[in-house]
């Protein structure tokens, strides 16, 4: 038995792909360990779809190397890679029944019809659709079609599972239950999964690690916590979650913005930029007693009530406009143009490193 | 109740909209055909049917017509299917250009195209000249005035009728289905037999029925490119009506041709029903 513990499930080395003069992907390096749930997160046009098609084998790279469980697959055709894929619009075969759809990959692998039918029924049972085998895809709801696609993608015990924005066509409630279902199935099969999405919330919920891709390169790779609290660039900070970003000059006491706000930090930095998440800002009528905070006075410009949370836009006196997000509390709602005190813990003023990509050209 | 009323209303108003066309067709098309048909049943004319069926020569012409129609249909199918798939994968501009090129022959008079074929296939035509220049043959061979010429010409003329329905159904197939098939382990052959073909079979059968039916009644090509060597039923009908002024016999032959056409059509329709049964709107996945 070869020892697979040190072999990554998927390894991309210096992958480059251009379409005409445009680099869709440049120097992509990525390692995914067995059983991991990795999300590739990026806006549309970031190169994430090209990366997915490249992993699936529908596109071959101009240069670089791709290996699946240590085996070079750079030029292998899609069918040889043993990858199960769930397409954005499911891509179920409309002329085959649900059961026949799930049997398809098994029949392509020369299983007998009997064996294929048995395994397919099992896979359908795993997604609670065993009663729907005789239906045609068109007769199922979106969520059910999604589950059929999932059963078809895992029935042949693939080495990797690829999910291409599979939840984008579902409504919010269904999406959340499908996310749980996919996550459970993935965990129970211990299936290495690569998930493509542009939805940052979905990425945070589902992933072991997230790779943020933009302009054809991976901007940052890390756990959801690392990505959220320690973004390595402004691009990443702005893409994940809401953010208040301050730029200014470094002083011995902290960062001073052009408008005169001074932000003290727990960790010294010289990057000239500070990120404060909207939920890290306390808002109150009276000044905060805690000395280890940055305190500002401001005026509510605008209030948005979204149920569990309230989002305020606050103009700091003689300073910047901030976005503040706090748990909604009927007793202490602030009204527009009300004077308030803001406090930000020093630890919540997080430096954002300066990198070449963010520097003005 | 209201919905049902709406449905009835919609049906009546659409019937009202098509009624001018129906009246025109009925008066100028169905009425003369029925008239001709009833003429063939009048008095001693009815004996013509027995005469045709018992005449080896006439039956030979029917069989010959059917054989040519089948050859043309098969050749067109083999040519049009890959072409339709190819066109469906072109860029939007490429598609527009390709479809325009396909449609040009449809806008050109059949007579003009037939003469073009006569030039192409002539003794001093480009094909003979090229073959001689290449050293394949020493002297011009007879290409025109043969069944080959008729089949070649008909294949050309009928191609759009085969191509357009197939293209229509192929282009409706969601491209991700082919990716899915490949990713799930299907090779090119399995992808074709298990995915592409079942999803475009309606277009294929529509094309087949169009070309088959049109080929059964074709007249100009066999008349001009066959040089009298390629007897088909339309020529026989023309001969009876035009040369022998035997309208009753022309009518009988037409009626038999019509029955063959209707049977062909029904067989294909039945085949379509069998092949796509149970599926709900297969093309638009």
For the biggest sheet of chain A, the summary is:
6 strands, mixed
Spans of chain A of 5+ residues with little confidence (pLDDT < 50)?
Answer: none
Q: Give the termini separation of chain A.
A: 53 Å
CATH fourth-tier homologous superfamily of the domain at 35-89 and 147-275 in chain B: MetI-like
Shape of chain B: globular
Strand content of chain A: 25-35%
Structure summary, number of beta strands of chain B = 0
Under the CATH scheme, the architecture of the largest domain in chain A is 3-Layer(aba) Sandwich
Largest sheet of chain B: none
Indicate the overall shape of chain A: elongated
* CATH topology category name of the domain at 35-89 and 147-275 in chain B: MetI-like fold
How many domains would you count in the coordinates of chain A? Answer: 2
Salient structural properties:
heterodimer, A: 361 residues, alpha+beta, Rossmann fold, OB fold (Dihydrolipoamide Acetyltransferase, E2P), 2 domains, six-stranded mixed sheet, five-stranded antiparallel sheet, 8 helices, B: 285 residues, mainly alpha, MetI-like fold, 12 helices, 79% helix, 0% strand, globular
Description of the molecule:
The complex is a heterodimer of chains A (361) and B (285). With 361 residues, chain A is an alpha+beta fold. Chain A has two domains: 10-236, Rossmann fold; 243-351, Nucleic acid-binding proteins (OB fold (Dihydrolipoamide Acetyltransferase, E2P)). Helices cover 23% and strands 33% of the residues of chain A. Chain A has helices at residues 48-56, 98-108, 113-126, 142-154, 172-189, 200-206, 224-229, 234-239; strands at 10-19, 22-32, 37-41, 63-68, 71-72, 83-86, 160-164, 192-197, 209-214, 217-222, 244-247, 249-251, 254-256, 262-263, 273-276, 281-284, 293-305, 309-316, 321-327, 339-345, 350-351. In chain A, the strands form five sheets. Chain A has a six-stranded mixed beta sheet with strand order 6-7-8-3-9-10, sandwiched between helices. In chain A, helix 2 (98-108) packs across helix 3 (113-126) and helix 3 packs across helix 4 (142-154). Chain A is elongated, with a radius of gyration of 25 Å. Chain B is mainly alpha-helical. Chain B has a domain at 35-89 and 147-275: MetI-like fold (Orthogonal Bundle), CATH 1.10.3720.10. Chain B is globular and about 65 Å long. The two termini of chain B are 32 Å apart. The model of chain B is unreliable at 280-285 (pLDDT under 50).
């Amino acid at each position: 038995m070869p020892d697979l513990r040190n072999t990554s499930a998927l390894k991309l080395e210096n992958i480059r792909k251009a379409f005409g003069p445009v680099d869709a992907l440049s120097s992509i390096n990525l390692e995914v360990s067995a059983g991991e749930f990795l999300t590739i997160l990026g806006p549309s046009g970031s190169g994430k779809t090209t990366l997915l098609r490249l992993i699936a084998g529908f596109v071959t790279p101009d240069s670089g190397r791709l290996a699946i469980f240590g085996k070079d697959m750079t030029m292998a055709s899609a069918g040889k890679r043993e990858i199960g894929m769930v397409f954005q619009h499911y891509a179920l075969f409309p002329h085959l029944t649900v059961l026949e759809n799930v049997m398809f990959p098994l029949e392509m692998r020369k299983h007998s019809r009997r064996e294929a039918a048995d395994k397919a029924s099992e896979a359908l049972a795993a997604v609670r659709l065993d009663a729907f085998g005789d239906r045609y895809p068109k007769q199922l709801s979106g969520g059910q079609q999604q589950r059929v696609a999932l059963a078809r993608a895992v029935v042949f015990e693939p080495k990797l599972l690829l999910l291409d924005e599979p939840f984008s066509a579902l409504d919010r409630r269904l999406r959340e239950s499908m996310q749980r279902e996919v996550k459970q199935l993935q965990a129970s099969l211990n299936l290495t999964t690569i998930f493509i999405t542009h939805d940052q919330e979905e990425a945070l919920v589902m992933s072991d690690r997230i790779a943020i891709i933009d302009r054809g390169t991976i901007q940052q790779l890390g756990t959801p916590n690392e990505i959220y609290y320690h973004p390595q660039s402004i691009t990443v900070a702005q893409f994940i979650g809401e953010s208040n970003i301050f730029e200014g000059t470094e002083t011995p006491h902290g960062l001073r913005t052009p408008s005169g706000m001074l932000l003290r930090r727990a960790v010294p930095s010289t990057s000239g930029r500070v990120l404060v998440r909207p939920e890290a800002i306390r808002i109150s009528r009276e000044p905060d007693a805690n000395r280890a905070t940055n305190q500002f006075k401001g005026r509510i410009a605008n209030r948005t009530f979204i149920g569990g949370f309230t989002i305020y836009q606050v103009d700091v006196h003689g300073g910047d406009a901030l976005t503040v997000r706090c748990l909604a509390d009927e007793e202490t709602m602030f009204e527009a143009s009300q004077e308030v005190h803001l406090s930000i813990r020093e630890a919540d003023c997080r430096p954002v490193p300066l990198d070449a990509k963010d520097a003005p050209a | 109740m209201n919905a049902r009323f709406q449905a009835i209303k919609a049906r009546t108003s659409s019937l009202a909209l098509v009624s001018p066309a129906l009246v025109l067709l009925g008066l100028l098309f169905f009425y003369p055909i029925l008239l001709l048909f009833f003429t063939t049943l009048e008095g001693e004319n009815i004996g013509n049917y027995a005469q045709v069926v018992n005449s080896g020569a006439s039956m030979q012409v029917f069989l010959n017509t059917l054989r040519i129609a089948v050859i043309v249909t098969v050749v067109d199918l083999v040519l049009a299917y890959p072409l339709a798939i190819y066109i469906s994968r072109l860029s939007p501009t490429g598609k527009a250009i390709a479809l325009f090129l396909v449609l040009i022959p449809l806008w050109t008079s059949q007579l003009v195209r037939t003469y073009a074929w006569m030039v192409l296939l002539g003794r001093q035509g480009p094909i003979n000249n090229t073959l001689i220049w290449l050293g394949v043959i020493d002297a011009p061979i007879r290409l025109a005035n043969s069944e080959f010429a008729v089949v070649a010409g008909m294949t050309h003329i009928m191609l759009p009728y085969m191509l357009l329905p197939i293209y229509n159904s192929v282009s409706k197939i969601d491209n991700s289905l082919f990716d899915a098939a490949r990713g799930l382990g299907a090779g090119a052959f399995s992808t074709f037999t298990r995915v592409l073909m079942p999803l475009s079979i309606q277009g294929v059968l529509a094309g087949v029925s169009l070309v088959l039916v049109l080929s059964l009644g074709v007249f100009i090509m066999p008349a001009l490119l066959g040089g009298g060597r390629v007897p088909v039923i339309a020529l026989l009908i023309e001969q009876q009506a035009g040369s022998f002024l035997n309208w009753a016999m022309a009518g009988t032959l037409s009626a038999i041709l019509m029955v063959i056409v209707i049977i062909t059509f029904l067989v294909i329709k039945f085949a379509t029903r069998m092949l796509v049964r149970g599926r709900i709107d297969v093309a638009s996945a």
